[in-house]
Amino acid sequence: xxxSTPWRGLRGRRGECxxxxxxLAGARAGQSQVLVLRGEPGVGKSxxxxxxxxxxxxxxxxxxxxxxxxxxxxxxGLHQLCMPMMRYLDRLPGPQHDALAIAFGLSAGxxxxxxxxxxxxxxxxxxxxxxQPLVCVVDDAQWLDRVSAQTLxxxxxxxxxxxxxLVFAVRTSALAPDDDPLVALRELVVRGLRDDDxxxxxxxxxxxxxxxxxxxxxxxxxxxxxxxxxxLTRGLTxxxxxxGFGRPDARPLASQIEQRFLRRIGSLPDAAQxxxxxxxxxxxxxxxxLRRVAERLxxxxxAAGAAEAAGLIEFGARVRFRHPLVRSAAxxxxxxxxxxxxxxxxxxxxxxxxxxxxxxxxxxxxxxxPDEAVAGxxxxxxxxxxxxxxxxxxxxxxxxxxxxxxxxxxxxxxAAAAAQAAFEAGxxxxxxxxxxxAEMSPLDEAQPARLARLRAQIVFARRRGGEALPLLLDxxxxxxxxxxxxxxxxxxxxxxxxxxxxxxxxxIGAREVAEAVRAAPRGPQPPRxxxxxxxxxxxxxxxxxVEGASLLRPALRAFRRAAGRNKDxxxxxxxxxxxxxxxxxxxxxxxxxxxxxxxxxRETGALxxxxxxxxxxxxxxxxxxxxxxxxxxxxxxxxxxxxxxxSPIAYPSLLLVAWRGEDVRAxxxxxxxxxxxxxxxxxxxxxxxxxxxxxxxxxxxxxxxALASAERAAEHDDLxxxxxxxxxxxxxxxxxxxxxxxxxxxxxxxxxxxAGDTDWALGILARSRALLCDGRAADxxxxxxxxxxxxxxxxxxxxxxxxxxxxxxxxxxxxxxxREQLRTAYEMLHGFGASAFAExxxxxxxxxxxxxxxxxxxxRETLTAQEAQIARLAADGRTNSEIxxxxxxxxxxxxxxxxxxxxxxxxxxxxKLRGALARx
Length: 920
Fold this sequence. Notes:
globular; single chain; mainly alpha
């Protein structure tokens, strides 16, 4: 078939229509489909959307359209798409039901996490698709409000085995890649028509003779853009079409098309122009509302007929413009006074009890001068938006409220609130602008200090290094005079910044921050959890590890006790408490804090926090020898950060790479991770990387390399790094004939382990002492180490202790005893997946004359990380709905994965899963 032949009504779009046909076929077959149609204005995205909808026979169709003037209204786009499905709301699990109801203003409650709303939408789509395949179309997606766009992007990435097609149409380059939540989804770039198709389209719409050279020029200038071909020829005279005797227009193509629409609008009667303006300013397409506005503006009934006759708009059940460029042209054609009049009429015609936020937004656009009544209404709208989880919308309302506030002091207060909301919404540049605006207003004594802290937090969020340190210290000092609670929190944030800056700190490091904390006034009474943590860290960095430990141990116990009932503090300070627990060798606190943090994040849908909790929990699993569980959580964390657009957390995956010891690129991966972190001043990453390299090299038996890496790691007192590096240094030194280096490391380790006073700490200490002893003393120390580590949760360190004990026994010619220890070490390490250490054990076993049986294929070699995770949850008796809620996927996707699990493990029911997993 020639490319010029129309493909079922769309000329030159056979490939694109074929792709959409495949989308429909996949959805009908139960394989979720997501596609982004991306192209310039007028290129035919909307026509392809109409083709898709027209072809979706036997399917439910849901539609939403992004509207530029609605971009500040939280969940506006999502509301459009989901309202026809709200009859399924009561089928959703309680947390999802509540989150969506609050987001849509159907009920009151705490602001829901936007990703819990996303999970609710995913479940809603899955419920609807159970009855009939579902086709969801979002046109002009570049104009969706921020939270709707992010939520739908989340949903798009979690769809897998539902009978759902989700198609977006978005303008090319409408958003920067970093601001475009749809950027990583499968896309189809819609380009202009091929020259022969473009010529055929021109010939079909131009009456009379069309000069061949003129036609070729029009095709070349429009680059085959269908709307441009139709609109740019509409106003040309016969002479221009026949001979090209017109003035060429060098404006951008979209501008040229819009100018054509502007001329057509300008040719209409004044009343029709004002009606088009009112329709452009009213984003919902509400016909009754538009009639009320027309009455207020004295627009007669014949105006609608004139606008429709011009082919610019349709008035049916809803108002629809012929093309989005018509809407923007109608709005821009009016002068500012006319726009204000229309917005005023829209505000007056909108009932406040039904849509108070849109009414406030129209009043704001109608305002000429500062108006406290309007500003107050916007501030209340911001509160409602924030309560629904629309923090970006709250920031926009507060920004406009501050601009319309006549009182300078109140203007500054609202700008400061807008800055805080913008930061929480992930718009740091906007937040900094608003901070600057607030600082130009008269502020009370407390506000400048709080703004200083906010500015410092923005810097730390962008670059977790030393750059934020002096800013946080300055903010803390200023807050001391006005808010001792916030001052203490700012000091704790400064300690955290110093920890991450590590050896790359400037003139201010952890010790300097600690001295500033100790010189500051005492905090609120009674002390909060954060106060106890701050006092302990300040003592640790000012006086030393031992002195700090006496305060940090009870602080960690207090966090453990509170973790189950105080979710906010458990989540808020996990980034520090987890490091402190590791520094104190406190595996019980590690376990409890991460258990509660992951559970709290899942229950609340806090997907901005969940990846951190999952990553720390994954590290706990690595030390427990549960590599498959760690891998599943790392995979889940990475999937979520891809959805949320946050940076992935590299540490747990690099920890797993080091302990596995089987990736030939392991050293390169670890060093690359450190280089990335140090580019923004995160010096702790240097010590961490050298510790991981020491683990890797010790596993591979490269003891000289391990010694060099461990010594580099031990050069700086990095929190939750130095202690680990010291025992790697002892082993590397003992094995590479460097007894002085090993003895010096042991001396430093003794002080820390005794102060930590946990079975983990004292077990590692006993093992390290044994490595540097002989005879009966070494034997007793190895046995003590095993006894203590058996009482801990760190099975990987227990297995390594069996290994080094077995190696020592073999050198002592105690072969039978050596085989027992080495066999235990090999079984444990191989079972964990610590391949390099397992190979060390295997070589030693062979040297004792032991033969090694070939082990069965491990489950992790047959199941993917997500399949293994789902299989374990199903084996524990979880339902598909419960598994889906925990992993942020739909029940149907869970069932799809379980079908694959059953096939791979050769089982046919859930009650056989536990046994199959145990055997594998």
